[in-house]
Amino acid sequence: MNASRLGLALVTTLLLGGCMMTPRTLAFRHNPVPADPNAAGAATVTTDIYGNVTTTLNLTGLTPNRAYAAHYHAFGPDSSTDPCASNGPVTVGFPAFTADAQGNASVSVQTTTTKIAGDAGAYINVHDAADLTVIPVCAPVKATKG
Ligand SMILES: [Cu+2]
Fold it and tell me: How many angstroms is it from 13 CA to the middle of ligand 1?
């Protein structure tokens, strides 16, 4: 392989790899609830060429040392334009996690594209583990149903 062909091969590999591995970043927004008023953060979603998806949540402004739960949810029946208000079922659960003494937390889960394709992966939310009805923040993934 001559130098220019090697260069072309490298560029092609980088372009393909770059397209498929570029992480998608989703911003969490605060729900209209009083819990954890300063809670914020982002979900970073990375998909490899085999369809394996790694999602990492980086959160701030949580209650120090409080236990939380997070999930991917499918688009639910209560809204077709706001996934976070649609009240859909859980499709993928993150491992349980606890905010540190500064109210920060990070948690990751691995899944596959099929489990969160389309409406199956409409939003990611973060619940107070002691009361799952308390949902301080939500990150929309898919803006409209269908
Ligand atoms: Cu949930």
Answer: 38
